[in-house]
């Protein structure tokens, strides 16, 4: 008899979480101006707001915390982190930052100027925000299959080469600082990019003399999908896939709070010495000295260990497998989700889930609020609120997909929690016809509004 699968770890410490009543949750979310970001953590039973910095570190990572070198310059913890990143990615130069959006701020300050365009697969919210803050424009070149949740395409994060070449033909190369490949592609549903597509983007970009950079927050999960779904890579190890993947890029930004398996941190990694020199100055201005860049030495040491652990196949099987477990439960209940199931989250199609809510009333946000009121489960809207307003017309941008993301923290919850989430969402689904209105905006920030927006019932 074949042995059943079990988690490749055992639990050493637990944290108590408290359930609440429906009446309490209804009051809390109203007091929070119907913004899930405004809820206090103790008001949330299962927190799927993000997988960023919310995972559990290993015993070896905690051991690294105790031996961190807190020297302001030349820390041995930085040297350990730098050599680890060089070994895993193949990039020569490393600049630590306190998190991923800080890495974007450093790199984009060095490369992006007003009226430039940055093509790529669906840009994440902070990425687009940093681009538009500089009065440049992000151009989405994701394949069309990504916008059909029923399409089983195995690599919905892929860049459409025809769309990309149209950008290259339309704008002079001086207006295109780089092409950005996000792995995995969060905004399109946590979907991976194939090795074949990465190679093709590199080849096309070389033709037009355009650099290629990675937003690599979930690079290990992307490598796992390449190994599972791409025939030519099945015999390769995860570290081999990662090294080849990055060999087609000129550099990367990383939010280490995802596949770095830490609670804080990020970095820029580069091959171009000139870009490194310019970016170093911005690191000092925005973050700190170039050998700590906003991170404590202990956190750099824990990150170096976490980067090693995230490339372990048993870990990745467990991590991606838990997300798949929840996705399969939801599909059994008939709940419409992005297929195939992505690496770090389940993305629920809010338009199909709540067909009676007008698009102007923020459908995915409405669904997130209903799930929280039902069971204390907090997700996040990946839809019209996140898409923000057009910087020129100031009209709402309505994305092709209106999604509720349920992001699963790493090594944090059990499959019993996944069962609870699935039933909670089914309960909302069973009363979906009763939900006919959503929310209006009372106040919003001029950019990246979804973090701080204040809403009221329609």
Features:
Aspartate Aminotransferase, domain 2; 16 helices; 5-stranded mixed beta sheet; 458 residues; 12% strand; Aspartate Aminotransferase, domain 1; alpha/beta
Protein model, in words:
The chain is of the alpha/beta class and 458 residues long. The chain has 2 domains: 22-51 and 312-457, Aspartate Aminotransferase, domain 1, CATH 3.90.1150; 59-309, Aspartate Aminotransferase, domain 2. Helix content is 40%, strand content 12%. It has helices spanning 22-31, 59-66, 76-89, 100-111, 125-133, 161-170, 195-207, 219-229, 238-247, 273-286, 297-309, 313-332, 350-353, 363-375, 384-387, 415-430; strands at 46-47, 93-97, 117-120, 137-140, 179-182, 212-215, 251-255, 266-270, 345-349, 377-378, 380-382, 403-407, 439-443, 454-457. The strands form 5 sheets. It has a 5-stranded mixed β-sheet, with helices on both faces. The chain has a 3-stranded antiparallel β-sheet with strand order 9-12-11. Strand 3 (117-120), helix 5 and strand 4 (137-140) form a beta-alpha-beta unit. Helix 6 (161-170) packs parallel to helix 7 (195-207) and helix 14 packs across helix 16 (415-430). The longest helix has 20 residues, at 313-332. It is globular and about 60 Å long. GO terms for molecular function: carbon-carbon lyase activity. Its cofactor is pyridoxal 5'-phosphate. The modification N6-(pyridoxal phosphate)lysine is found at residue 258.
């Amino acid at each position: 008899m074949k042995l059943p699968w079990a988690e490749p770890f055992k639990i050493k410490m637990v944290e108590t979480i408290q359930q609440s009543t429906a009446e309490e949750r209804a009051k809390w979310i109203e007091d929070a101006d119907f913004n899930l970001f405004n809820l206090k953590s103790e008001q949330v039973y299962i927190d799927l707001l993000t997988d960023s910095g919310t995972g559990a570190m290993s015993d070896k990572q905690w051991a690294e915390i105790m031996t961190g070198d807190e020297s302001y310059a030349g820390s041995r913890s930085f040297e350990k982190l730098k050599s680890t990143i060089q070994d895993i990615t193949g990039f020569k130069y490393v600049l630590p930052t306190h998190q991923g959006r800080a890495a974007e701020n450093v790199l984009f300050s060095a490369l992006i100027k007003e009226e430039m365009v940055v093509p790529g697969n669906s840009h994440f919210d902070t990425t687009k925000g940093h681009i538009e803050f500089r009065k440049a424009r992000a151009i989405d070149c994701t394949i069309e299959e990504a916008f059909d949740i029923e399409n089983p395409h195995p690599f919905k994060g892929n860049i459409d080469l025809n769309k990309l070449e149209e950008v290259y033909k339309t704008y002079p190369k001086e207006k295109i600082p780089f092409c950005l490949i996000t792995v995995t592609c969060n905004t399109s549903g946590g979907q991976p990019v194939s090795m074949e597509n990465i190679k093709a983007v590199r080849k096309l970009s070389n033709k037009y003399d355009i650099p290629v950079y990675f937003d690599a927050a979930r690079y290990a999960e992307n490598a796992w999908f390449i190994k599972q779904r791409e025939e030519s890579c099945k015999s390769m190890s995860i570290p081999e896939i990662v090294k080849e993947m990055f060999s087609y890029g000129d550099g990367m930004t990383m939010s280490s709070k995802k596949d770095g398996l830490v609670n804080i941190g990020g970095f820029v990694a580069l091959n171009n010495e000139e870009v490194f020199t310019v970016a170093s100055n911005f690191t000092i201005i925005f973050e700190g000295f170039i050998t700590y860049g906003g991170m404590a030495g202990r956190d750099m040491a824990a990150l170096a260990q976490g980067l090693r652990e995230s490339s372990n196949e048993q870990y990745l099987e467990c991590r991606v497998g838990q997300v798949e477990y929840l996705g399969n439960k939801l599909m059994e209940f008939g709940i419409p989700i992005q297929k195939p199931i992505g690496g770090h989250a389940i993305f629920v199609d809010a338009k199909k889930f709540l067909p009676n809510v007008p698009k102007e009333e923020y459908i995915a946000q409405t669904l997130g609020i209903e799930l929280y009121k039902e069971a204390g489960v907090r997700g996040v809207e990946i839809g019209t609120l996140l898409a923000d307003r057009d910087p020129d017309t100031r009209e709402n941008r309505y994305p092709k997909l209106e999604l509720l993301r349920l992001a699963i923290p790493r090594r944090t919850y059990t499959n019993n929690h996944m069962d609870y989430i699935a039933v909670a969402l089914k309960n909302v689904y069973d009363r979906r016809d009763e939900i006919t209105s959503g929310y209006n905006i009372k106040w919003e920030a001029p950019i990246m509004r979804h973090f701080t927006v204040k809403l009221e019932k329609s």
